[in-house]
Amino acid sequence: MKITYSVVCAFAAALVMWYGAAAAGEIPALVRVPVDSVGFALTAAQVEAVVAVSDSMIAAGLPDADQSRAPDGGPLLGAIVPHDDYIYAGPFYVTALRDVRAPLVVMFGVCHKARRIGLEGKLVFDDFDAWKGPYGYMPVSPLRERVIELLPEDIVLVSGELHAGEHSLESLVPFLQYPGFPGAGKDRRILPVLVTRQPGELYLRSVEAMASALSRVFAEEGLEWGRDVAIVISADCVHYGDEEWGGRNYAPFGADQAGYERAVAQDIDIARTALAGPVTMEKIRLFRERVENDDLEWPYKVTWCGVYSIPFGLGVIERLAALDGRESPTGVILGYGTSLGPGPLPVEQTGLGRTAINTLHHWVGYVSIGYR
Predict the structure, then answer these.
(1) Distance of CA 286 to the CA centre of its chain
(2) 369 - beta bridge partners?
(3) Are residues 165 and 20 in the same domain?
(4) What domain range includes position 313?
(5) Which contiguous run of DSSP H or E holds residue 5?
(6) What pLDDT score was predicted for residue 18?
(7) Residues 5 and 55 placed together within one structural domain of the fold
(8) Among candidates 357, 113, 84, which has minimal Cα distance to 237?
(9) Neighbours of 174 (CB within 10 A)
(10) pLDDT value at position 12?
(11) Pairing between β-strand 236-241 and β-strand 304-305 as defined by DSSP bridges
(12) Are 14 and 62 members of one domain?
């Protein structure tokens, strides 16, 4: 392209307009853009298609939902939701995130890259002003800096680079923005945190520090947990099979129908015994005993992609309740499924794809749990 004086002037004018809009607060100065373009929604139409199909499935009853202790419809204090492809996991996002109604959402996610780069013992914060989603910009709460200030320096890492390359929290943003859900709107803010391996006593220290920091910030700002703030934990369940797992075999029960059924039964049992009901440190220890191997050494006993985020997030929930002098929240299973069952949603016409196959040789489990 020939660069002319008029082209330079047009570019300069556009740049001036952008900086003017940023200065006026119309466009955030530093924006995190989505890293995944396959399997996740980039447009409002894609989100709406996933929600519509998911709603019909939820109305019909998701597999393994705890009907005997169905939620009362009030706002959630916390939730565990997946971070896999919407085409597989859509209903398990929707059934929980529609009842996350607080204007501030603290998000604890998985840092998939941490083990590969030897990063552990850190809570990773971003440095963005906002995250871009299908409905515009989702601002990051300015309370992030106050929380960081209250935490021990040695457990904090601020890295926009790690957040920019990680999908486990960006997958929540479209549903937190979706205008059909209570709580979504221009006043909603997020506080994203990636959780790395917290070995030994560091786990308890980090949980206590985060809970204390959040409790203090809530008190300073007059925020009520549930009404003003909710905690969402990003986690997938078992990653199973003997194909397309980087040469690793994740099929201890075999890659056939019988093996699938045993692995699903194991997932559901872990969720029911360790994640549902009142949140206690005893149950968190049970979860770690079920899925971890020798204090988070690789490989895990059960390949859940929530081995870090779930114990940390639930630990913070348990300690927050104690600091608040309230009963510990109770978790209800809102549904369990896999990429094989219910299987792909019929929304591919919107352009939503899938990042991986779904066969008996390669599948992922999902659980949705709401805490009140």
Answers:
(1) 22
(2) 80, 333
(3) no
(4) 33-371
(5) helix 5-23
(6) 37
(7) no
(8) 84
(9) 26
(10) 36
(11) antiparallel
(12) no
- For residues 196 and 6, give the distance between their C-alpha atoms in angstroms, rounded to a whole number: 50
Q: Where are the beta strands (DSSP E) in 97-158?
A: 104-110, 123-125, 130-133, 136-139, 156-158
| Tens of pLDDT, residues 294-315 | 655 556 789 999 889 999 999 9
User: Residue 298 in 3-state DSSP?
Assistant: coil
304-354 pLDDT per residue, tens = 998 899 999 999 999 999 999 999 999 999 999 999 999 899 998 899 988
User: CATH no. for residue 64?
Assistant: 3.40.830.10
Tell whether 22 and 68 lie within a shared domain: no
* Alpha carbon distance 326, 260 (integer Å): 40
Q: Are 370 and 79 in contact (CB under 8 A)?
A: yes
> How many domains is the chain partitioned into structurally?
2
Residue 249, number of CB atoms within 10 A of its CB: 10
With contact defined as beta carbons under 8 Å apart, do 233 and 306 qualify? yes
Query: DSSP alpha helices (H): ranges in 193-324?
Result: 201-221, 257-270, 281-291, 309-324
